[in-house]
Known about the structure:
By secondary structure, chain A is an alpha/beta fold. Chain A has helices at residues 3-11, 16-19, 37-46, 91-101, 118-133, 186-189, 207-216, 233-244, 258-268, 275-285, 293-305, 321-333, 343-352, 364-367, 375-383, 402-411, 429-441, 450-471; strands at 23-28, 52-56, 62-63, 66-69, 81-85, 105-108, 137-139, 146-148, 153-154, 167-174, 193-198, 222-226, 249-252, 288-290, 313-318, 337-338, 361-362, 390-396, 420-425, 446-447.
Amino acid sequence: MTExxxxxxxxxxxxxxxxxxxxxxIIGSLSQIWFGGQAVLKNLHDFGYSGKIYLIxxxxxxxxxxxxxxxxxxxxxxxxLAIIVTAARQVPSIVKDCAEKGVRGIIIxxxxxxxxxxxxxxxxxxxxxxARRAGIRIIGPNTVGTVNTATGMVTATxxxxxxxxxxxxxxxxxxxxxxxxxxxxxxxxxxGISKICDFGNKCDVDESxxxxxxxxxxDTKVIAMHLEGIRDGRRxxxxxxxxxxxxxxxxxxxxxxxxxxxALLSHTGSMAGDQKxxxxxxxxxxxxxxxxxxxxxxxxxxFSCQPLPRGNRLGIITITGGAGIMAIDTATESGLTLAxxxxxxxxxLSKIHPxxxxxxxxxxxxxxxxGELPYGEVIEAIxxxxxxxxxxxxxYGGLLPADFYLQILNDxxxxxxxxxxxxxYGPRLEGVDQICLELGNNxxxxxxxxxxxxxxxxxxxxxxxxxxxxxx
Amino acid sequence: MTExxxxxxxxxxxxxxxxxxxxxxIIGSLSQIWFGGQAVLKNLHDFGYSGKIYLIxxxxxxxxxxxxxxxxxxxxxxxxLAIIVTAARQVPSIVKDCAEKGVRGIIIxxxxxxxxxxxxxxxxxxxxxxARRAGIRIIGPNTVGTVNTATGMVTATxxxxxxxxxxxxxxxxxxxxxxxxxxxxxxxxxxGISKICDFGNKCDVDESxxxxxxxxxxDTKVIAMHLEGIRDGRRxxxxxxxxxxxxxxxxxxxxxxxxxxxALLSHTGSMAGDQKxxxxxxxxxxxxxxxxxxxxxxxxxxFSCQPLPRGNRLGIITITGGAGIMAIDTATESGLTLAxxxxxxxxxLSKIHPxxxxxxxxxxxxxxxxGELPYGEVIEAIxxxxxxxxxxxxxYGGLLPADFYLQILNDxxxxxxxxxxxxxYGPRLEGVDQICLELGNNxxxxxxxxxxxxxxxxxxxxxxxxxxxxxx
Lengths: 472, 472
């Protein structure tokens, strides 16, 4: 078996060329800083990718001090992954070059394929055919690329504008570039990512492939997917059921109306299928469905850094009585119930201050008294109540800095099966941003609205039940 | 009729002493900077209140260079409004002093009344009785106060931390202090407020009184209320129906579960009543109900600065195809429908660039081509389509600064009956914050999630129908 044949064999069903390549070729446009080859190059440098990077473009000799090769065939060493950012019509011949070179994976950033017209669809089919014969896997076309925070492997085709994403347990996949780091302030959010993948038109690598890969990825703890369509429903559910024994899967499936179903077709060429059938299949498999992009983005945060609850009995700690009550409504609508505290817990709370007794426990009346707010003692008292399975906690980002809350939270001995979520509000955006960032960076799921913070706990309870059912 | 008797008569049913006082006495604690009398004093100074301010506390002669009087009776001139921040037990005798002085309104910031226990309830009743005999209206107790941006009249009992709120059309009222400027970054949001009122325990001034006052307030265009209970449902609906002919009313009514209903009682002593009865009465009257604090806070923004739509046909302008489709789902679920563009409009769009044709119109493919994004031309083309009643527009806060968007939007000639809402996303929080602030300050309703941006248009369509029905 030649080296090329061995590589070909290894490629089938293996997505490592996309997320763990040792060498990358960037093929195509080098004319702009903020899009295309130069952007990919700068992003890879900024994020600290340590593999080899080759630039390919017949019109240049050198860009940013980096040598440019006329074709990928001219690169002297092996190339694991090619990122193509050319016009669509050039892609087939470039893929042929890649096949000849023994490339294992190709990300096609270019658009103008199946999402455009029949001609584009034919072009896309041609590309797929060439790649398949060569045993090359493709992500895209019409994708903004992938991210692997473990290696600084960032193939975003737009200049990102920041230089790191916290390593964390969330894997995102979507049929839209809007989950990419060029679109979302992951760094400013203190948001921990393992992998990102924009499927684009999904001509080859699909949701089932990625799910299989993420199942084995030790860095991924929760998988969040935006799917405009599913290529092979049976296969997907089969893989999903296996994954769900260990990792939660959250899915946002657009196409809930006739009008959006129609629009899907022209976006990524996806046939939406029957929404009701999807929904009931997801439910049966144990996949958690979310209804908005905001939820898809924010709910995984809790899964990635907090333990699953044993039950649905919620303790609420607030610093504004009104919010505590509103949170009861959103929590019960998410499947939680208000915990009835043990007498011993209320006695503990009463010793800290009489107005703290009860659930919600309200620190509000203590603010006017001055002195340090006993957040830590209150959280610990309620967290250790046998009748409490999870906690929603309201933080006031007013006069108190991020350090104050971080110190308190780090000092708490958190039982291994009691998740907490947080909502931060305050009079200055800067103060709220800072608390969200610091707490996020330290593994606390912080939200900017109480609805999502309580929904996240509801979703964790939902998955805890599913997991129990699947594992037994 | 003595001057005092004349003032007493004028006070009944008139809330101007709370929002338009010419003189204010701050009675009580002066020991802390960030809460109590000193905080109220500094807030009033910071927000530019130009009326007279008197400090009252028997233990001080002077604070922050301001003379302190032992009792309100010692103040040489008339006092319109008293703000009391003492312990609860001192309040009755202070209210007696206020009655003697001829004060017209009292805000009781102190807690420890009906929300606490039976003793507190009795104390509250005693205070109400004294005030009623003297013709004094009370807001509170257990309130963080009021705001009137027209005069810099800010009675928040906590130090706010910023020094202005944009004047605008939104009036907020709640039975929680969380709508106050000490809790929310109105300035950083570019959020336009007319009046804010925290009812607290609502011992006297209630939702019907305030609704009546706001109906006549020329600065208020939309009224948003968080109501834990309604004191006199019949009266409230009567006033509401009158107001609704001119101004929309949005209400968040907590107490959707047994558990939250129970919690309401201990928060502000509110009997929640039957939620279903409230809901159907609100609906019948034409009040718009919202289901979360986030919606109560964010949906009024569109009402305050955009015209009401004539119909529910939505045009979507996006820079990410995936988001455009997700927005169709959230929009149709909010009562909107996707507009079918005229052939002429699609021809206009095609001339700008062929990929722009259709609804949603997607600017995404143009980003990679470089050059200035034709947001202005696309918005204008769709805005002038007779089949379009309202527009949802996605802005990318990436490489483009706030000025770019502001210039474009300011140049657009907006038909008088077509509202627009915006969603901004981007890779840096700072960039997104800046666009939100600048657009907000210039009267464009900007959102940080697409769901709320489309829900706001749905709510405006809902109110447009209600208004039509009520006015005819």
